[in-house]
Amino acid sequence: MTLRMVERIKETILLVEDEPDVAQVIRMNLERSGYVVDWCTSGEEALERVGRGGVDLALLDIVLPGGLDGRDVCRSIRADAENAKMPVIMLTSLTEETNIVIGLGAGADDYVRKPFSGLELVARVKAALRRTRGQREGDASRREAPLTVGELSLDPKRHAVTISGETVGLTLAEFRLLHHLMAHEGRAFTRQELLGQIVGEGVQVIERNVDVHVRNLRRKIGDYANNVVTVRGVGYRFDG
Questions:
Q1: Cis peptide before 146 (omega within 30 of 0)
Q2: Dist CA 30 CA 38 (whole Å)
Q3: What is the pLDDT of residue 201?
């Protein structure tokens, strides 16, 4: 395994802490435990870094300079669909229970009171990342499970759709569209959200062309066409 490959699998921690001495100690402990640490000192800088992607966990000091504190940053992370499940741990020197409750209410997974030991912090980080990995593996397992509604069956591993045992010939885009909708039965998706799911190698799609794929999909699945429901002003959902 090359050095580049080793670096790629390291998990990245975003540390948001405005006190350099505290940040240096935290960074040293995390890097010693094998993590990559990106350090910033303000809420605005933190959101910019999260927006670039590749952050596995955020450590947020509650009290930060500028217009955004740690709770504001956490709320923004939770409001972003791509980062909503990212583990967030609050670092706080605030001792009042109310402040901690507000931090957790903003969407934090855990909090650590200052002063804390390096071992305690690393243990909290490891636990949070372990829970997230478990959730991802569970989600992946569910995505690979066959999906069935009546006589309509979709098998992700075989990349096959059948109705009453007869194979339905779907394009790659149509298969991905049906898979995503069936895997999230009852949930409405915008055309833009669906676009992100159906674009694959050799497939070029603009947002309104999602309607074309839906129309073709409905035609091919016959009696189950009505299960692909148009949600006016939003997009589409699948009802079982």
A1: no
A2: 11
A3: 39
- Which residue is associated with the tokens 């009696």? 223
Closest CA to 227 of 137, 149, 110: 149
Q: How many CB atoms lie within 10 A of CB 133?
A: 12
Which residue is it, tokens 């903003």?
106
How many whole angstroms separate alpha carbon 225 and alpha carbon 152? Answer: 11
Question: What are the φ and ψ backbone dihedral angles of 145, each rounded to 5 degrees?
Answer: -75, 145
Contacts of 102 (CB under 8 A, 6+ apart): 71
**Token pair belonging to 75:** 């709320």
Whole-angstrom CA distances from 33 to 26, 81, 92, 135 are 11, 29, 22, 22
Q: Which two tokens stand for residue 55?
A: 């952050």
Range 164-172 average pLDDT: 87
CA distance 237 to 240: 10
User: pLDDT digit string (tens) for 96-116?
Assistant: 555 556 556 677 878 888 888
Predicted TM-score of the model (pTM): 0.55
Shortest CA distance to 74 belongs to which of 14, 23, 139, 121? 14
CA dist 59 and 51 (Å) reads 16
60 confidence band (pLDDT: 50, 70, 90): very high
Instruction: Note the pLDDT tens digit of each residue in 189-216.
Output: 888 778 766 654 344 445 667 888 898 8
Q: Which H helix or E strand runs over 153? A: strand 152-155
Q: Are 58 and 16 in contact (CB under 8 A)?
A: yes
Q: Helix, strand or coil for residue 118?
A: helix
Structure tokens at 107: 């969407």
